[in-house]
Design goal:
This protein has 16 helices and three strands. By secondary structure, the protein is an all-alpha fold. The structure holds carboxymethyl coenzyme *A.
């Protein structure tokens, strides 16, 4: 039996949700280019597309928007948990536990899977914002159903309505993170779903996988790197030193993209605009220089900026502290997780791979008194 470490190049399902062309740097949700969706669509419409396989008509979009807005409130026991959990808790642990608690209440109800998917998607920004405000000793801000998903997230976080630019940047950032085929967290969701466990338990597995620094954490590492460099004149020396000492440039490289990640291309433009508005343009200039010099050196090996390269800078400019970045990622990837769960369950097969045994067999059992 052949060993495929990391399941590299193993397909575990057919999908109609997302297609990545890693050589040309293209990404499609349900056949639509990410460039078009980022320019013309929005979170709610693209979520509909990913869940249901087609762009919604006006009525369908209105219904989904209303449902997403209606479901934003949290049950009191989840609010109490958020208020009482230690303030220095990892936000991904808080998110994971809160979703798990929502699953307890929901165990008995008869909603369809997509309704549960909408419900969880709707509540994640509330969980994150309530925790952020509580840990800063600020009053929590109740959701505002007149605002879009992205606007309401920023409103609950900061207590003021976002500017048009902030709303657009937040909306596009969420849209770009919504799905990415068979990444580690989506696979984790499917492993649980394939046992016919419930959707909440499956999503908890996804959050747990996304928490790891090899998956959801590279965006904050990329930002830290720009802060450490401090000035665009320091970039060349920093990169040379990093690479010569065998270190990696964070936010560069991808298992599938061997060219510029299209999501990074889109985020770069928004990072430029939002850092200007927020007085963080010096960080953008550093990033741009790292992008330029890094691509020149590493591009020969097919290593270019990935989505995380500019995402941290964007999230930070929008007011998220770096430890929150993976939770923002989760607030978007929930759409992909649940869409893949629903797709997989239409033709379910228990996921049960094999391990190649390398230990001994036939060892003689010795009573405890006789062991050394
Ligand atoms: N900086 C410098 N060299 C790199 C980098 C980098 N960021 N990434 C890969 N390499 C080199 C690596 O040293 C190796 O070189 P050699 O063949 O000479 O030993 C070669 O490229 C292949 O690297 P690998 O780790 O075997 O390739 P992979 O496909 O397993 O790695 C990766 C993909 C994302 C783990 C890796 O590029 C990396 O560690 N990047 C930095 C962290 C990062 O930005 N992660 C975010 C990924 S995007 C997340 C998403 O899409 O959700």
């Amino acid at each position: 039996m052949e060993l495929k470490k990391g399941l590299e190049d193993i397909a575990i399902k057919e999908t109609e949700i997302t297609y990545i062309d890693g050589n040309l740097g293209r990404l499609y949700y349900r056949g639509y280019s990410i460039f078009d969706l980022a320019e013309f669509s929005n979170f709610e419409e693209t979520a509909y597309l990913i869940w249901f396989g087609k762009l919604p008509n006006s009525r369908e979009l209105k219904d989904l928007k209303e449902k997403l807005a209606e479901e934003r409130n949290l049950p009191e026991y989840v609010v109490q948990f958020i208020k009482n959990v230690r303030k220095d808790a990892n936000p991904m642990d808080v998110l994971r536990t809160a979703i798990s608690m929502l699953g307890i209440e929901d165990e008995s109800n008869k909603e369809e899977l997509w309704e549960k998917a909408v419900k969880i998607t709707s509540k994640i920004p509330t969980i994150i914002s309530f925790f952020v405000r509580t840990r800063k000793n600020l009053d929590i801000i109740e959701p505002d159903s007149s605002l879009s998903h992205a606007e309401n997230f920023l409103y609950m976080l900061k207590g003021e309505k976002p500017s048009n630019l902030e709303s657009k940047v937040m909306d596009v950032s969420l849209l770009l993170h919504m799905d990415h085929e068979m990444n580690a967290s989506t696979f984790a969701c499917l492993v649980v779903a394939s046992t016919l466990s419930d959707i909440y338990s499956s999503v908890v597995a996804g959050v747990s996988a996304l928490k790891g620094p090899l998956h959801g954490g590279a965006n904050s590492e990329a930002l830290k790197q720009f802060m450490e460099i401090g000035n665009k004149d320091n970039v060349e020396e920093y990169i040379m030193k990093k690479l010569e000492s065998g270190h990696r440039i964070m936010g560069f490289g991808h298992r599938i993209y061997k060219t510029y990640d299209p999501r990074a291309k889109i985020l770069k433009e928004y990072a430029k605009m939002i850092t200007k508005e927020k007085g963080l343009y010096n960080l953008y200039e550093v990033a741009e220089k790292v992008d330029e010099i890094g691509s020149r050196i590493l591009g020969k090996k097919g290593i270019y900026p990935n989505v995380d390269f500019y995402a941290g800078l964007v999230f930070y400019s929008l007011g998220f502290e770096p430890d929150l970045f993976p939770t923002v990622f989760a607030s978007s990837r929930i759409v992909g997780w649940t869409a893949h769960i629903m797709e997989y369950l239409k033709d379910n097969k228990l996921i049960r791979p094999k391990a190649i045994y390398k230990g001994e067999i036939g060892r003689k059992y010795i009573g405890i008194q006789e062991r050394e």
